[in-house]
Amino acid sequence: MRSFYIFALSVVTSCVVLYLIAMWSLSNIHFKGLPLIYRTNSFYQWQGGDTYHKLKLLEENPKVLVLGSSKAYRGIDCNVLSEQVGATLNLGTTAQNVCVSFSLLKEHLRFSKPDLLVIEISPISFESDGFESRVNLLANGVSMNLAQDLGIFKDIRYTNVFLSQKFKLSDESFYEKDGYQNCGSVLSDSSLPAEFAFPELDNEFLPGEEQKGCFSELVDFVQSEGINTIFINLPVPEESKGADIIECSSYVHSCKRDIPYLELDDAEINTTEHFYDHIHLNAKGAKAVSLKLAKSVLKK
Amino acid sequence: MLFNSIEFLIFLPIVFLLHYLLPHKLRWILLLAASYIFYMAWEWKYISLILVSTLIDYSVARKMESESRSGPRKLLLLISMITNLGILVIFKYANFFIDNVNLVFENVGMNYLIPYTGLLLPMGISFYTFQTMAYTIDVYRGQAKVERHFGYFALYVSYFPQLVAGPIERAQNLIDQLKAKTSIRSENLILGSKMMIWGLFKKMVVADRLGAFVTGVYDGPHDPSGILVIVATLFFALQIYCDFSGYSDIAIGVARIFGVRLMDNFRTPYLSKNISEFWSRWHISLSTWFRDYLYIPLGGNRVNKSRWLMNIMLVFLISGFWHGANWTFIVWGGLHGAYLLSERFLKLKIPLLSIQRSFTFLLVCLAWLFFRAADIGTAGDLLAEISNPGVQNASYFIKAFGVSQFAFLSLIGILFMFFDPLIDKRHKSEAGLKKSDGLVYGAMVAMTLLFGNFGEVSFIYFQF
User: Fold this and answer.
1) What's the pTM value of the predicted model, to 2 decimals?
2) How many CB atoms lie within 10 A of CB A270?
């Protein structure tokens, strides 16, 4: 057995050394403005610059904290909420599901407790496995604490992304999104063209067990911590309203307990004027919806 | 359960430890239970098909043992063939036949359409039915001894390392090894680990990564241009080789750590000088199966020329059909049959080994185009596109896919073609531990961790 132990030990040692050397080199050698590691696999592509910037704001002390998917960071204008309600941080990130929202909330609570927590809920919050969302966060400089909560060791791809971020010598964002506001929102001035081809409707709501569990834990958590919370459902164009959205709403109603759930869908929001694609609000839409949200919050 | 899954990463060490902790006489129970769990992790109901095959072939062989008359022995063999092929026809080919009959109905103006069976294709069905049929045929011919221990026979049919995608083992090779008392041996662990590492590297770094590009071209919504079809077909040639030989390597490696030597299934097939050599290096366990149980019983080459030609064509057409219930596979088999016949008759003298190899590789790639296409119409369209280079279309597609990723995949493909024969040689030599082994296999693991596809993509041959 001695030779097998020598073999195993030499494989493990070489693997660790070569992995670290390759990871360090690929993270620091750039090609056309991007580290080489980003060019080797498609899952390195979700490193959006907005996430990088808003994670830097994580330690600030906002009155209002917004969590959710791209619908949230594109559809809630943090400037409007800041003016109307109080300093707002929009921590919405790409494809953020309930478990990831919960992790981000716990991370933020290490620094401060918001007066109001707004969580955007849509079918993706329950249906997404969170891969895209976790990779996006891990690629943008999260703390070890948050990385562990996101399950950094559950998938080697998470470990790779996290290490490549930690190994890079320069602390800079490689991607920038037009319309980034320094309180977390990303606003687009474009409007939907009249001849826009909408994708097929999704009529099936398939919530994952893990997300359902996280939702229940999240509700318990905010209630036990006494955090003022609202769930919101942001509008989508009429052409994108599949049965999944209605089913998701009913599901949230059935298990949100006494946390308010605000349906922000409104007849004043119209497809061509207030959206820039099949689900995301543009700057004008975000302003209108945020004003409505502020009004509801202030009324309560 | 997939070899490239977390479940298997937990499953294998548990089975391995228990195997060597248990006394020898109980090990078959553990391995049989592990094999059934391995299969049921995919779809528990379909274990019943394996049980039916096992029961029938066990009983038929036992009965044959006590029967010396030719007639009843033939009848018993027939029962086994009808059962196994019946399972295959019902679960794998019924919808294909229904589809074609419906097409005829439509063309003659009949309004009635036969409904599809709605049955799920059982994973690895073609592999275990062929393995168990081989046993019954060998017993019938007197080439294999009858296995009286039901447990060991059931284990032979369902042995988990090679259950779903081979190598298709003969009873003579496997059962005695399963029965042999084994102890943990360093050389088995080393070679087994090497084969598993290499197999996983091939699957996750080469096959699954190239597969993303191939799928984009072959199954994408837009008509690809000629350049794209050519590149995707070259990538597919590497993808299917790495996917299938990767599976075989892992299977051989897993069996090896339990002290069992499975047969070789691939010997660097893309280095073949001609098609005949290609078939002695590609999916060896299947090509020898067809040779021993179809080609030779049909008369092989000891018949007149026209019959011999027919035998070769028939074997390749059936081999194509074995792969899948689609005309694309039949054309693929037919093309290989035609290549082989042309080789025998034309006796082309191609100079230089590298040109011979390249020419053979191109012929194989042309056949892969049919193998990969979704249907025969798509294959025709893709083939027609080859004459239209369409540089603009190709450049648009590659930009959308990612130029740097495309370059990275091409580099992986080229490097793999260079290293594959060297690694294969390293495994075949079995010369114990080499000084460079730690570095070579450590580098493979590091590259798999860095560049592998960890999306748990199924193996292509599971569907056959």
Assistant:
1) 0.85
2) 15
